[in-house]
Amino acid sequence: MSLRTRRASVLPALGLTLALLATGCSGDSTATTASAGKPAAPASSAAPAAAITITDPWIKAADQGMTAAFGTLVNTTDEPLTIVGASSDVSAMELHEMTMKDGAMIMRPKEGGFVLPAKGTHELSPGGDHLMFMDLTSPVRAGDEVAFTLTLADGSTVPFTAVAKPYSGAEESYAPDGGMDMHE
């Protein structure tokens, strides 16, 4: 085989290889994923906008320490949804509930999260279930709008904004045994 014949047979193969590599490296992951017989991954982990809404969201104004967010969570779907977490730029957050312990009302993390029945609601209120801001990084003043994100059991997230309001009830403090007491 002459050198000229080898070049003639190698060049088309090289061109085909480069074309295949360019297709595989393109930014269109849907095409390569679909051609592999696998469904494409969703573009976002955010829950559908209408799955959960919150009516009358508000957060207790506070200069430092802890505070809480309240409102009524509304599940607009035909399936129960469970909120398992919350986050915000102003503080670490936990889902909390109020319960009786040794004759006293105490606040504690809500095991299993907040379950919203299909087409149902779940109230977050002072003295009840609430979204706890654990250690504010800056003051939350009356009128401030505070953004936070709820995380559902399926990993999807739902962003909300709550307006800060002055509120003198439900003064929170940590109890010496690591629990939390509520003082009205």
UniProtKB/TrEMBL annotation:
Quote any Pfam family the record assigns.
PCuAC
Record key words, sorted: Signal
InterPro entries associated with the record: LpqE-like (IPR007410), Lxx211020-like (IPR058248), PCuAC_sf (IPR036182)
Q: Which domain of life does the UniProt lineage start with?
A: Bacteria
Q: Which Gene3D superfamilies match?
A: PCu(A)C copper chaperone
Q: Which residues form the signal peptide?
A: 1-31
Would you tell me the protein name for this molecule?
Answer: Copper chaperone PCu(A)C
Source organism per UniProt: Cryptosporangium japonicum
